[in-house]
Amino acid sequence: MEPNIRNIAVLTSGGDAPGMNACIRAVVRTGIYHGKNMFGVMQGYQGLINNHIIPMNARSVSNILHLGGTILKTARCLEFKEDEGMEKAFKNLKEKEIDGLIVIGGDGTFTGAQRFGKKYGVNVMGIPGTIDNDLYGSDFTLGYDTAVNTIIEAIDKIRDTADSHDRLFFIEVMGRDSGCIALRTAVASGAEAVLLPEKETSLKDLIIKLKEGVNTKKSSSIVIVSEGNKYGGAWDIAKSVKRKFNHYDTKVTILGHLQRGGSPSGFDRILGSRLGFAAVNEMLKGATMQMVGLRGNEIKLTSLDVALHMHSYKLEDDLLEMTKVLSI
Ligand SMILES: Nc1ncnc2c1ncn2[C@@H]1O[C@H](COP(=O)(O)OP(=O)(O)O)[C@@H](O)[C@H]1O
Ligand SMILES: O=P(O)(O)OC[C@H]1O[C@](O)(COP(=O)(O)O)[C@@H](O)[C@@H]1O
Ligand SMILES: [Mg+2]
Fold first, then answer.
1. What is the DSSP code string of 144-193?
2. Would you say 15 is a known binding-site residue?
3. Do both 137 and 165 map to the same domain?
4. Which residues are recorded as binding ATP (predicted)?
5. 107: Cβ below 6 Å to ligand 1?
């Protein structure tokens, strides 16, 4: 039986990701199309606790499709992890008679949504929004494609100067404990090596690879280091390599938060629109505690629980193999 949902709130939480605005727009307009009252929660779970919940209409989301960041703002809210914080959040939702909550965010956001939904029986739907691509059940998370493109553009620029000076660059990219960003950007920028949190690459192997480059007359080398790499960040790796292998002038670049900003790619605008549209439609059909995701160009549902606990299988094996072969 379809639930009688009348009032739906949407929030963005955790790290912002390009495409979140396209998604907010889709959620709000799809809800309004179905005759629902729509609300935006400011600053993720912090806004639920602080009762910063605003009514939204079709015009509240005009001209945002192309904007990076999130008009609803976002936060890392520790208070929501505590029972008292959740209780406050529930009271505020209840007072406004909000019976559906759509959260756009990553693994942390989904963990919170799952606990909240279970505890208070609120209908909850998750939309995967994080540049990290660390959720199972969606081939791509919102913002990942834009971030990968932004990083490739930055590395291309570094390659120009690396090549001109015959230098070795260690470039650190984001991804917390997920190497998806590092792997894709390594393939697309022709990096000589990539260090991932999920796979062990010994320093010895890395040095052998770089030596081969010198022997075969490579003028520059680029090593992508994922921030979650077990041997440390780009600075640590650079230091250890330099100690044992001093054939290159070595430099380090930490790309940092520029990776998260910028106008969403066409892919992320479409993905955000599709996921937002689907989340509302599925919620109105009775789905709850589910994530909407893209699998093989189809929108599919995955329970929040499964989405959270299986992401380590996402690295594409062929890409891994390719980074080694195509950089000889
Ligand atoms: N165990 C938890 N219980 C309740 N809320 C949580 C939990 N883990 C994370 N959250 C909430 O989700 C927010 C976003 O999580 P975070 O890990 O920062 O980003 P992301 O959702 O992008 O992975 C946190 O700031 C917190 O409010
Ligand atoms: O902006 P902050 O709070 O320093 O967080 C940095 C982290 O956020 C991210 O950019 C995105 O991660 P989340 O989606 O989990 O928020 C990670 O890649 C990075 O480790
Ligand atoms: Mg996360």
1. HHHHHHHHHHHHHHHHHHHHHHTEEEEEEE--TT--HHHHHHHHHHT-SE
2. yes
3. no
4. 15, 76-77, 106-109
5. yes
139 part of the active site = no
Asked if residue 51 has its Cβ within 6 Å of ligand 1, the reply is no
Q: Residues 76-111: pLDDT tens digits? A: 999 999 999 999 999 999 999 999 999 999 999 999
129 with 246, same domain: the answer is no
Residue 298, helix vs strand vs coil? strand
Are 167 and 253 in a shared domain?
yes
Whether residues 139 and 11 fall in one domain: yes
Q: Which of 24, 51, 20, 88 is nearest to 277 (CA)?
A: 24
Q: What is the pLDDT of residues 37-55, one digit of tens each?
A: 999 999 999 999 999 999 9
93: which residues sit within 8 A by CB, 6+ positions away?
A: 9, 48, 53, 101, 122
Q: Among the options 132, 134, 145, 268, which is catalytic?
A: 132
- 43 labelled binding-site residue: no
Judge if 187 and 244 occupy the same domain. Answer: yes
Closest ligand 2 atom to residue 181 Cα is: 18
Residue 251 annotated in ligand binding: yes
The pLDDT value given to residue 312: 64
How many domains, the chain? Answer: 2
**With 70 as the cut, is the pLDDT of residue 213 above it?**
yes
Confidence at 214, pLDDT banded by 50, 70, 90:
very high
Specify if 85 maps to a domain. yes
**Which of the listed residues 12, 13, 130 should we mutate to test ligand 2's pocket, taking the one with most ligand atoms within 8 A of CB?**
130
What domain range includes position 51? 7-143+264-309
> What's the predicted TM-score (pTM) here?
0.97
Mean pLDDT to the nearest integer, 140-161:
98
Query: What ipTM does the predicted assembly reach?
Result: 0.99
- 142 Cα–ligand 3 center, Å: 12
Q: What is the CATH number of the domain that holds 138?
A: 3.40.50.450
Residues 134 and 180 in one domain: no
Chain centroid, CA 325 distance in Å: 28
